[in-house]
Amino acid sequence: MPNIILSFDDGRKDNYRIVREVLEPLRIPGTFNITTEYVKNNEFGEMPCKDSSMSKKEVIELSESSMVEIAGHGKFHNNQLDGFIQGVDELRKWCGIGKIGIASPHSELKKSDIQKMKQELQRHGIIYVRTGDRLKDFQFLRKCMRKINGFMHIPQMFSWIYKDTMLNETDTFVLYSVPVLKNTTLKELEFIINKAIKKDKSLIFMFHSIKKKNECFYNDFWSYDFDSFFGFCKYLKKKENEGYIKLSKTIDLIAK
Fold this sequence. Notes:
Blueprint: E1 3-10, H1 13-26, E2 30-34, H2 36-41, H3 56-63, E3 68-72, H4 81-95, E4 100-103, H5 111-123, E5 126-130, H6 139-152, H7 155-161, E6 174-175, E7 178-179, H8 186-199, E8 203-207, E9 209-211, E10 223-225, H9 226-241, E11 246-248, H10 250-255
Parallel strand pairs: 1-2, 1-8, 1-11, 2-3, 4-5, 5-6, 7-8, 9-10
Helix pairs in contact: 1-9, 6-7, 7-8
């Protein structure tokens, strides 16, 4: 049965709200990838974003929920090895976490980059790295089609672009994710989930902000509409109740 994972980057303030207002009421787990310096001072300039972060207290509160996995996202939102290690060390002190995963800021790390770091990451109890999409064949064509589909929103095209990003049983330490952007439609998300069900493959969806209309940064490229997110979550819960998928945290893929 495919695992479907919702993964949220940075530690943005609105992520705390969606846990309380959407995920916990629907009993849907989520993975929250925290940039610790962003959370600590909330004045990290434009990196990872201009919007407000969760507080350290809120990160700790979320870590106590059975619906939440806290993972690293670099201390300073970069892909430096020492930053990953410093970030997860801080999260361990805050939340009492043992083994932990990390997500690559900007999804910049390629599999070859991760393999070079793997031994040192594992030595520090880091059990997976989640990065962006995986494009095996027709890479240039798919990148072009991704830009085109940003305007056309054809579900079949969306699914073809990200078909290699679906996860197999052999995907363990290096994990890939499908980005959910401002204009991603529910039909696109539903179509690729149905493809994953047919192929018996898992999917990680990468989110950033979840915003309500008229809120600051609602129109940002990385913000997703709150009502659309709620509708997506209800669709996922329905699919799980029907026995087609299992809603999971990222770490559950490693534990299988």
